[in-house]
Design a protein that fits this description.
Elements: E1 6-10, H1 17-30, E2 37-41, H2 47-54, E3 59-63, H3 80-85, E4 90-93, H4 96-101, H5 108-120, E5 124-129, H6 133-137, H7 141-152, E6 165-168, H8 182-199, H9 202-207, E7 209-213, H10 218-225, E8 232-235, H11 242-256
Parallel strand pairs: 1-2, 1-8, 2-3, 3-4, 4-5, 5-6, 6-7, 7-8
Helix pairs in contact: 1-2, 1-11, 7-8, 10-11
Bound molecules: 2-phosphoglycolic acid.
């Protein structure tokens, strides 16, 4: 069974609720027909208003993060059930901005707890992994990916494979305009799939969708997604405009069609 391509828009901390609704409407209305899954991830407080717009469309909703506890005294956090209640079915976990940039500095232990909690709540986790520029220069890329993927999947069984999404996002490519080359992306993705096969089994590894993220644009999307183990994209900046985002969706269809 070929893997169905998936294109996820990560809006990060951008847009007003009104602009988010407008963009969601434009994406839903402009979605090309074809075998591709598409999801948009607005900030927490815009999940409900964007869900309203997407209801009845083919565009899915996702959150940008989540806490792993189900309830309690965790000021500022959002639980898996709260996310599911909005209608979201995806949740981005371990994004590099949360690992490296924002004050939380999430570690792999916490990200693993989140992955398990998301699966338990019937959400699809998008587990993000990726090396920094210093790690790439020191030729540590594959070791970093091995560690982050293995740590992220502790206690996750092969039954979850079809519901798991992994995103390879080299930190040096995020928001920099400098994307990984298709060959660099394929090398990393093939490595991740081999690890999944070792962790579970070849069939389970074949079911997992591995997205590439980092400066994906309509102009480079097709070549990246034409790689055998690149099953779609996690899109930041280019997801903030309907035409560029839809251009990437079309490129995914062209690459995998
Ligand atoms: P970018 O972000 O497309 O703006 O590089 C990707 C991401 O952070 O997921």
């Amino acid at each position: 069974m070929p893997r169905r391509p998936l294109v996820v828009g990560n809006w990060k901390m951008n847009l007003s609720a009104a602009k988010g609704r407008e963009l969601a409407r434009a994406v839903a209305d402009g979605l090309p027909p074809g075998a591709v899954d598409v999801a948009l991830c607005p900030t927490f407080v815009h999940l409900f208003p964007v869900a309203d717009v997407l209801r009845g469309s083919r565009v899915r909703l996702g959150a940008q993060d989540m806490f792993f506890e189900s309830s309690g005294a965790y000021t500022g956090e959002v639980s898996p059930a709260m996310i599911a209640e909005t209608g979201a079915t995806f949740v981005i976990l371990g994004h590099s901005e949360r690992r490296h940039t924002i004050g939380h500095l999430e570690d792999d232990w916490m990200i693993n707890r989140k992955v398990r909690a998301a699966l338990a709540a019937h959400l699809t986790p998008i587990l993000c992994v990726g090396e920094t520029l210093a790690q790439r220069d020191a030729r540590q890329t594959l070791d970093v990916l091995t560690f982050q993927l293995t740590a992220g999947l502790v206690g996750v069984s092969a039954d979850a494979a079809e519901r798991l999404v992994v995103a390879y996002e080299p930190v040096w490519a995020i928001g920099t305009g400098r994307n990984a080359t298709p060959a660099q992306a394929q090398e990393a993705h093939a490595h991740l799939r081999r690890l999944l096969a070792d962790h579970w089994a070849a069939a389970a590894a074949q079911a997992v969708r591995i997205l590439y993220g980092g400066s994906v644009k309509p102009e480079n999307a097709r070549e990246l997604m034409a790689q055998a183990d690149v099953d779609g994209g996690l899109i930041g900046g280019a997801s903030l405009k309907a035409d560029s985002y839809l251009g990437i969706v079309s490129a995914a269809l062209a690459a995998k069609g």
